[in-house]
Amino acid sequence: MSYGSVFRDETKLDINYTPPELQHRNIQFKLLNEYFRHAIMTPGKMTQRVIITGKIGTGKTVLTQHFGRSITREAQQRHINLHYIHVNCRQNKGSFFLILQKIVAHFHPGFPKRGYSAEELLQTLMQILDDQNTYLIITLDELESLIQNEGSEPMYKLSRIEETRLKESRRLSLICILRELSWLSKLDASTRSTLQNNIIQLDSYTKTQLQDILNDRIKSAFKQGTVPFETVILAAELGEEEDGNARYAIELLWRAGKYTDAEGGKEVAPEHVRRAAGSVYSTMRKDEISTLDYHKKLFLLGIARRFQQTRSAHITTGEAEESYKIVCEEFDKKARGHTQLWKYMKELTTLGVIKAEPSPSNSVGKTTLIGLPRIAAVDLEKELNNMLKSTGEDTSDDN
Ligand SMILES: Nc1ncnc2c1ncn2[C@@H]1O[C@H](COP(=O)(O)OP(=O)(O)OP(=O)(O)O)[C@@H](O)[C@H]1O
Ligand SMILES: [Mg+2]
Questions:
Q1: Residue among 294, 306, 286 nearest 331 (CA)
Q2: Which of 30, 36, 90, 211 is the most exposed place for a label (fewest CB within 10 A)?
Q3: Whether residue 54 has its Cβ less than 6 Å from ligand 1
Q4: Residue 34's pLDDT band (boundaries 50, 70, 90)?
Q5: CATH class of 26-202
Q6: Cβ–ligand 1 contact at 59 (below 6 Å)
Q7: What is the number of other CB atoms lying within 10 angstroms of the CB of residue 95?
Q8: Closest alpha carbon to 243 in 62, 58, 28, 374
Q9: 58 vs 64, 148, 184, 332, CA distance in Å?
Q10: pLDDT in tens, 67-105
């Protein structure tokens, strides 16, 4: 980057950047290749379904992207027409229709956006694959969002589609990414059992593994000699405490680098990392929050405000609801009902933005308590205000 910066290339620390090398995921990478051996050896004979699971920032997305690149390269060398498509369910609002639309558009960019049901899109997709003699591996990333939004139906349809095509070649394989396997219980028994056979678990990274990941990234992102050993260790330690979250550790370093530049410093010191950790309103959450529907943002804004009025670590759902109603009045919007808010709360919990837990058993009546463990309410409010101002009401389907 510019003269006087510790960065060589900041984009290497971006959340959407895919590093050329994977650290410490060799076994899982090989396993994934093993599961898909037949796609290369005997294409069309069978399809595969694999689940990848692991906590936030454990490399689920990056692992599958690497795998996608490598298997399509290998297929190409063998003149097999194999495509890999990676779709993030959350970014597609957990809508089966939008997800399928994206997949069909991969083959036919001009395909009409209206006039087809999800069912028809799926049939269209199979037709395209047959016509082009193509095999396809789809990764459904952040699958919880699709299950939460549409239940077991989409997965059921995807699992069954091959079985209704008795004579044709097998063409469609799936990789499903879930942070928690408990989501499988929401699927019907037979879909669940076809999925459950192949599970690849990504364990949380240890401090030394995070150090290796960071060191590798530092080489391309920072100028030589600007990030001392102690700084890397501290960022890795903090990443380990955050459930072995590599994204968090990388983001800490990026922020620490920003602080260093702001001071005109030549070295990223541990103190910069500490300051980054204290102020991190993490960009990953920002990304997640920005894709929320309008009323979910209003609900979260209500929660953020309520937390600023209390010294307690929790608020009740009643208080959250009340606060949301006030926000709605202010924004001149009709408030959504109780059942809807309950759904919002579950979704925000899944995202890890809030924490919902039952109140202690000795208290009167049963209620759910909401916690805001990771983000300062002030920062959250500021962020939401910006987003709500810049986007206006999203008129798309939001349930
Ligand atoms: N083994 C690894 N080697 C190099 N970089 C890694 C590795 N694992 C993770 N990273 C980096 O850490 C960040 C988080 O990884 P990734 O996005 O794959 O996590 P995830 O498990 O998909 O998280 P989430 O549950 O939030 O979707 C990314 O920037 C990724 O490039
Ligand atoms: Mg991911």
A1: 294
A2: 30
A3: yes
A4: very high
A5: alpha beta
A6: yes
A7: 18
A8: 58
A9: 12, 22, 20, 41
A10: 999 999 999 999 999 999 999 999 999 999 999 999 999
Tokens encoding 317:
């759902």
The domain at 205-280 falls in which architecture? Orthogonal Bundle (1.10)
pLDDT tens-place string over residues 225-235: 999 999 999 99
CA of 53 to the centre of ligand 2 (A): 10
Domain residue spans in the chain?
A: 26-202, 205-280, 286-391
Neighbours of 222 (CB within 10 A): 24
**Is the minimum distance from the CB of 179 to ligand 1 under 6 angstroms?**
yes
Does the pLDDT value for residue 364 go beyond 90? no
Strand partners, 316: 369
**CATH number attached to the domain at 286-391:** 1.10.10.10
Ligand at shortest distance from the CA of 12: 1
Q: Can you give the pTM of this predicted structure?
A: 0.81
First and final C-alpha spacing in the chain: 44
Do 146 and 101 form a contact (C-beta atoms < 8 A)?
no
Q: What angle do CA 78, 81, 83 make, to 5 degrees?
A: 115
Check residue 391 and give its pLDDT.
67
Ligand at minimal distance from the CA of 28 is 1
pLDDT given at position 1? 46
Per-residue pLDDT tens over the stretch 269-291? 988 988 888 666 555 567 778 88
Q: Report how far residue 95's alpha carbon sits from residue 86's, in angstroms, rounded to the nearest whole number.
A: 15
Pairwise CA distance, residues 127 & 125, whole Å: 5
Q: Are 221 and 211 in contact (CB under 8 A)?
A: no
| Whether the CB of 86 sits within 6 Å of ligand 1 | no
pLDDT of 398 > 50? The answer is no
Run of H or E including 219: helix 207-221
